[in-house]
Amino acid sequence: MTPSSKAPRPLRVGIVNDLALACEALRRVVCSDTALKPAWIARDGREAVEMCAKDKPDVILMDLIMPVMDGVEATRRIMKATPCPILVVTATVSGNAGLVYDALGAGARDAVNTPTLTLDGAVGGGAELIRRLKMIVRVAEPARAKSIAVPPRVAAPVLHDAHGVAPFPTLLIGCSTGGPRALGEILAALPKPLPFAVVVVQHISRDFAEGLAQWLASQCNAAVRLAKPTDRASVGEIILAGDDRHLVLSVNGALVQTDVPTDRMHRPSVDELFNSFASFGAPGVALLLTGMGRDGAQGLLALRRAGWHTIAQDQASSVVWGMPGAAVALGAATQVLSLPEISAAIMAKFRQRRV
Hints:
By secondary structure, the protein is of the alpha/beta class. It folds into two domains: 8-139, Rossmann fold, CATH 3.40.50.2300; 170-352, Methylesterase CheB, C-terminal domain (Rossmann fold), CATH 3.40.50.180. It has eleven helices and 17 strands. The protein has helices at 20-31, 45-54, 71-81, 97-106, 126-139, 179-189, 209-220, 270-280, 297-305, 323-330, 339-352, and strands spanning 11-16, 36-42, 59-62, 86-90, 110-113, 116-117, 123-124, 170-175, 197-202, 224-226, 230-231, 238-240, 246-249, 255-258, 285-288, 309-313, 335-337. The longest helix is centred in the middle third of the chain and has 14 residues, at 126-139.
């Protein structure tokens, strides 16, 4: 076997959990796939921070409720000192919803249910954990984007309602790692009732989407709901993509869920949402916030070319400057702003457009 044909090294996985049974279940799941191998096991958050500083793995499986230091604080410290992809593993979302979304806001990439270990040694729920684990590692790979000139504006077809009136203004938001906290802060600072519709794609597994909608509603004091299979946004509404399907604007003005294209790393994809509005929607405002990878960068570029006002979160206020950084490199952002500046910029632009 030549050096170039060698199989890639297994991904090293750090396991953080104070329960011996859970650690064993996680270890067995990791060992069941030849592309993975355990790196170390930490019994609390503080030990995880220390072990990550000495031996950073490719990905960490992080429990939430532990002695000494919980998973939220451990996630925050790891992302600050030795950042690497973190997947929250929790037994109950409903019981720990606040901690789940705090951890996602601190930089955890996603959350899954803890696999179960039966008396006969079988492990349940391992396949979904492995799928999510591999996905967040792939997304964490450095984005490759070339700087280009500011794109020219290209007129896009604009949908009209049955009376020939252009549709109401829309705010589009795409985000991933660290997104829940950023979303909560931005939405809380906007006036109520909202003078526009809001459509959001946040990378998160479907099991946690309903809880995220409820958590965001509590943060911003506004109604947040999951998108329906065939939906229509309305002024004052905040709609969150909540299924493992793309959410796109169709030619008749409806928001629809679709599995196509099937080759996207993310479902739902920020790029698919943005591209659909660039093709059909009246120009509005679009945000690309903190997140690993580059999903949304090309879509934001398409929106800018279609006459939208596009905003990318700056590096200093992002938990991970992957997605917005890729957009900036492409020339897709009209503005690059810190998190505290974004809400005011949104309102200024909508007032300027007299919507």
